[in-house]
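dumping this here before i forget
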Amino acid sequence: MHQNSSSFLSQTQTPRRHFLMGVAGAAGVFATSQNNAWGYQSAADRPTFATIGLRNQGWAITSKSFKFANFAALADVDAKVLEDNVGKVEKGQNKKPDSYKDYRKILDRKDIDAVMIATPDHWHTKIAVEAMRAGKDVYCEKPLTLTIAEGKLIEKVVKETGRVFQVGTMQRSEFNNQFLLAVALVKHGRIGKVKKVTCGIDSMESSPVIPEAPVPEGLDYEFWLGPAPKVPYRALAEMRQGYGGGVPLYSNGHYSFRNWHEYSGGKLTDWGAHHVDIACWAIGASETGPSKITPVSYKLPVEYKDGHPTVADRYNAATNFEIHAAMPNDVLMVITSEGDNGILFEGTEGRFFVNRGKITGKPVEELKSKPLPEGAIEAIYGGKVSENHTENFTAAMKSRKQPISDVWTHNRMLEICHLSNIAMRLGRPLAWDPVARVIVGDDQANSFLSRESRKGFETQA
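structure:
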């Protein structure tokens, strides 16, 4: 595998905060009062939420939503995780939520207005579809889907039910709005005509052989697998430390699910769902897609045959990659595991780099003397700018308009990530029809656009 030729090193040295003062209103205008939840002024006036899936990001989106919603119930298939989070939510809102192992008991309740879904990816679509059909609005973590067909189904059900649906691509709202600034810089021509955009999304780790192991006490592993194939639980004794800790470092379950195609799509759909999203938004590709996906270089941690891993005892998502996507208007999108995590925009008149910690480059420096027009950031966001993705969601619930991270734009960019994984699994470029949303002239590749669910866990179309 060769090194990616795009270097981020020159873009990572300068702090970003003082550059933003040239933007009309600066950061203070973007911030919103924690006491003004888009019209929900009191606890009694706030919507009632429930969270399904509570480890890590499930707790993160719940805890930052306390000032916008009341949490009446929680669900998780791990009894210990459920118990721990019931206690944390009770402490956070001064009221104990009800708890369930089976999320369907939440959907049966008429008092719950919306659900927040933070399960592993392979559960997202089934729960989201059932929640909408039960009359609930939905906030679902990214990546929204396991397959492209699932995305189309969710779009269909949103349209049928009229529910409000926020995807958890929080870079559209949070991180000091510097991703909004990046989009505004591109759309206001500050780098001229865009020629190339590089999304650095980090590499994925491989694993040793992971043996079969006893299911952890309190985990309903059968229910955790759900729509995925029935396979033995696997884990090594070494425990994970730090973020996501308290579980085996190597397993086919908690935290490590992103390393398996059975449950997720590796870094392509993890970090890719964030950075490819912002890139597509900036270059105006949120309603279309690439014409071709080319896996320039990549490394799969196990052998594949006909697009499927030949062993079941190790992680199987790509560890390293450089993917080229031919985007509209002759823009080249590069998705790479090399270099700094973030997005490098390059045009005929300049370039700049943005990630969660900084936004750097000459077009950013020039904001001090040549600020963007007043209201530019608000125009990108579509109105009042939030620093909290849930705030935008609750505002949309009240207005009955779709929020900043809608399912249609999310699915369009996520198709690039899904197609990249298919191209690596099959070892060849893919031609894509962004209108018909099918792979051109490749029946085998098209068979990967959907996936059969395990019997008893199907999603009604």
